[in-house]
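Hi R.,

As promised on Friday, here is the backbone we talked about, encoded as structure tokens. Could you run it through your design pipeline when you get a chance and send me back a sequence?
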């Protein structure tokens, strides 16, 4: 295997972290996104996965050895999620086929593999926690399964190896990204400090009191690289979390302390961030102007609906990492420190004051 990688979704949390790691490891990195941006060590490719003709043209002449698929497109229904996201994976692999260079494809999905899609999130008959890879698929339609099937079909046809990676909620930086709990909580804490509002946990008693885990984007990137370069990991699906477990009734206080706010007592009532932050766009505009922040649009920084979905789950969610551990992947990241590293980066990049 050579050392040329195509990272699909470099504008997102997982994709940008993966491209950064590969560049640090002296790979030749191609970064594909609809709106590509400058990233050190990455050759940008602007293309739309839903447009096969322009995608094929954008990839012409490129011969990646490894492809990392870290993106998806949210649609109004799960049926549309399946149609659109399966087509995106299919279009990508079809466009790469003529070069015949691909030896491995890594696909990032997530714990909705076990919890079900947004329309049935955490409902019905779910597998027992901690989630393990051998528990397999739920008997419901799920765009993650459709994405996997496209990779499996292309692998069978073209002879490349594959890996599937299932992170829990990812901690990392990306502006305009749907799955950005860390930035959403940083902005929420900043607003609470600004206004004197209570820093109130928005989710369910099950999440407040139960065990959970998360995934640092940097650790996910390390597992992606490990799987792509480890023969024993070929054609395997892996969970990927930081390696620690915590309760939100502890983590909430840790985050509050970092921002210098007092955590409000939790009374068990769910008050989503989407409700708490509904009128905050003008306030953030003023904070950004006063503090010289680079992003004044609150909707570009936060996506409360996704954070609410995670923190509002009615069940405990923890993830087993034994499979990759036994094969040699032993990376670990303390989750509170992952949050703190992100907050420092957001402050350094003038995204929060």
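Update: got your reply. Pasting your designed sequence below so it's all in one thread:
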């Amino acid at each position: 295997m050579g050392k040329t990688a195509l990272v699909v979704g470099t504008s997102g949390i997982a994709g940008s972290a993966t491209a950064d790691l590969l560049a640090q490891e002296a790979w030749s990195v191609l970064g594909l996104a609809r709106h590509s941006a400058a990233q050190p060590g990455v050759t940008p490719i602007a293309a739309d996965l839903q447009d096969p003709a322009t995608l094929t043209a954008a990839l012409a002449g490129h011969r990646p050895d490894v492809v990392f698929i870290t993106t998806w497109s949210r649609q109004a229904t799960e049926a549309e999620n399946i149609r659109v996201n399966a087509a995106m994976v299919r279009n990508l692999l079809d466009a790469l086929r003529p070069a015949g260079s691909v030896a491995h494809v890594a696909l990032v999905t997530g714990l909705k593999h076990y919890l079900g899609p947004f329309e049935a999130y955490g409902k019905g008959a779910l597998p027992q926690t901690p989630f393990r890879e051998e528990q397999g698929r739920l008997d419901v339609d799920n765009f993650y399964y459709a994405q996997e099937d496209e990779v499996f079909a292309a692998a069978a046809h073209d002879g490349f190896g594959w890996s599937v990676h299932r992170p829990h909620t990812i901690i990392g930086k990306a502006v305009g990204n749907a799955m950005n709990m860390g930035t959403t909580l940083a902005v929420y804490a900043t607003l609470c400090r600004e206004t004197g509002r209570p820093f109130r946990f928005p989710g369910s008693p099950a999440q407040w009191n139960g065990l959970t885990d998360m995934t640092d984007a940097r650790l996910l990137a390390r597992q992606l690289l490990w799987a792509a370069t480890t023969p024993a990991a070929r054609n395997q699906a892996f969970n990927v979390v930081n390696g620690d477990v915590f309760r939100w009734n502890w983590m909430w206080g840790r985050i509050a302390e970092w921002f210098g706010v007092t955590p409000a007592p939790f009374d068990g009532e769910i008050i989503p961030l989407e409700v708490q932050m509904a009128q905050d766009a003008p306030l953030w505009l003023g904070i950004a102007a006063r503090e010289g922040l680079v992003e004044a649009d609150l909707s570009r920084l936060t996506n409360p609906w996704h954070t609410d979905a995670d923190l509002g789950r009615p069940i405990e969610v923890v993830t087993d990492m034994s499979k990759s551990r036994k094969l040699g992947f032993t990376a670990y990241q303390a989750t509170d420190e992952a949050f703190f590293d992100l907050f420092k980066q957001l402050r350094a990049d003038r995204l929060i004051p």
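One thing I noticed while checking it: The longest strand covers residues 161-167.

Thanks again,
M.
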